Amino acid sequence: MRLGRAALWVFCGLVGCWLVAPALIVLPLSLTNQASLVFPPRGWSVRWYANFFTDSTWIGAFWTSVQVALLVTVVATAVGTAAAVGLTRTRGRALLVANGLILSPMIVPGIVFAIGSYATFLSLHLVGTLGGFVMAHTVLALPFVVLPVAARLRGFDRRLELASASLGAGRWATFQQVTLPLVAPGVLAGALFAFVTSFDEVVVSLFIQSPYLQTLPVKMYSSVSRDTDPTIAAAASMIIVLTTALVLVATYLTARRSRAR
Question: Considering 50, 84, 145, 243, which has the largest number of Cβ atoms within 10 A of its Cβ?
Answer without folding.
Answer: 145
